Amino acid sequence: MSIRFNHPTVSGEEIDHVIEAIHNGRLSGDNAFCKKCQEWFNLNIQCHSSLLTPSCTHALEMAALLLDIEPGDEIIMPSYTFVSTANAFALRGAKIVFVDIRPDTMNINEELIEDAINEQTKAVVPVHYAGVSCEMNHIVSLADEHSLYVIEDAAQAIASTYNGQIVGSMGNMSAYSFHETKNITSGGEGGLLAINDERFVERANIIREKGTNRTLFFEGLVDKYTWVDIGSSYLPSELQAAFLYAQLQNLDKLQESRFAAWNRYYEMLKPLETAGKIELPVVPNNCMHNAHMFYIKTPTADSRSQLLSSLNAKGISAVFHYIPLHTSPFGQQVGRFHGEDRYTTVESERLLRLPLWSNMKLSDVEQCCNAVIQSV
Ligand SMILES: *Cc1c(COP(=O)(O)O)cnc(C)c1O
User: Fold this and answer.
1) Which of 172, 170, 158, 151 is nearest to 88 (CA)?
2) For ligand 1, is residue 153 a contact (CB within 6 Å)?
């Protein structure tokens, strides 16, 4: 019996909400379900404003537009991340400055950021890998000191906390993903821009509405609706919002099942770590993760290849993850690595992700663990 790497999260109530949206007779962006989702996020992220977007990629692009990023600006981020983190800023002509990660959490090493800051630096983009928060106190105070913006790539980090604060509530803005591989989904693709800095709220609505003040017009705050700024169409459909709303209402239950699977992996594989055969994920004491991903690290890149083939031969879709962006052809063109690549490449080559989804049966988790136990 084969085990897929991921199944999209389904709560069971999506279809009722989608039918309701159809009956409401309004399917374009910013209608009833979109507003309901955004109210949920405003409350739960404790942000000034939140805007559903067609993807996290789009939310990051909106952030780059809102910061008025221009050619010559530099943006600091880890190289161990998804292309969208960098693309959003590369699209505006920025130089991407990659900083090494910490080997324990795979997050940007906060201690190395200051050395990469110069006159051109505009923003720092911490990526909360596997839903484990970056060291945000350090990053936010550094940004304040040097007048930089912080944009959190919280694509994987819905419902995570750091010192009790919601991950995604600490930077000026943050971007979440509701792609089908994430903890919750708006029907395959989707995202959110959460705005914690009030200065960006009005313009964010304009940029999202093709550069028009349509939102203000609908709110009765201006009497004509006209073209006032650059913009694009960063609105998801009402059907996506309806789908997502069902998942938000069931979030606790969905998260509970995800944690059960994650915890079973951890318990069953712990003896292999004790025996020195693999390493398990590290979650610092001040961080509460969200069971987004379960990964292990093998001693070397070669042992990872062997384990991947062995698991795949047993019908288990284990996969590796990011190839560091600074080693990619386009990453080399638009970016540079600041300092030494001490951990980014070597740690990324040892990391292997195991199947995990909401409502995954514990017997499936056990089958995956047994396959790992037999293979290492
Ligand atoms: C998934 C992901 C994205 C992109 O999300 P989309 O919604 O697919 O655009 C960006 N950054 C990180 C770290 C991700 O994991």
Assistant:
1) 151
2) yes
| Ligand 1 pocket residue status of 56, Cβ below 6 Å | yes
Q: Is 193 near ligand 1, meaning CB less than 6 Å away?
A: no
The pTM for the full model equals 0.98
Question: Which atom of ligand 1 lies closest to the CA of 129?
Answer: 13
Q: Give the integer Cα–Cα distance in Å for 202 and 224.
A: 16
Q: Quick check: CB of 85 below 6 Å from ligand 1?
A: yes
CATH 3.40.50.10420 fits 251-375, yes or no: no
**Each residue of 26-68: pLDDT tens digit?**
999 999 999 999 999 999 999 999 999 999 999 999 999 999 9
pLDDT single digits (tens) 287-310: 999 999 999 999 999 999 999 999
Question: If you ran DSSP here, which 8-state letter would residue 319 be given?
Answer: B
Nearest CA owner, ligand 1 atom 8:
179
Query: Residue 223: how many CA atoms within 13 Å on its side-chain side?
Result: 0
Which residues are paired to 245 by β-bridges? none
Query: Is the CB of 84 within 6 Å of ligand 1?
Result: yes
Please state the domain extents for the chain. Answer: 14-249, 251-375
Tell me the CATH architecture of domain 14-249. Answer: 3-Layer(aba) Sandwich (3.40)
Q: Could you tell which of 101, 179, 180, 323 is best to mutate to test the pocket of ligand 1, judged by most ligand atoms within 8 Å of the CB? A: 179
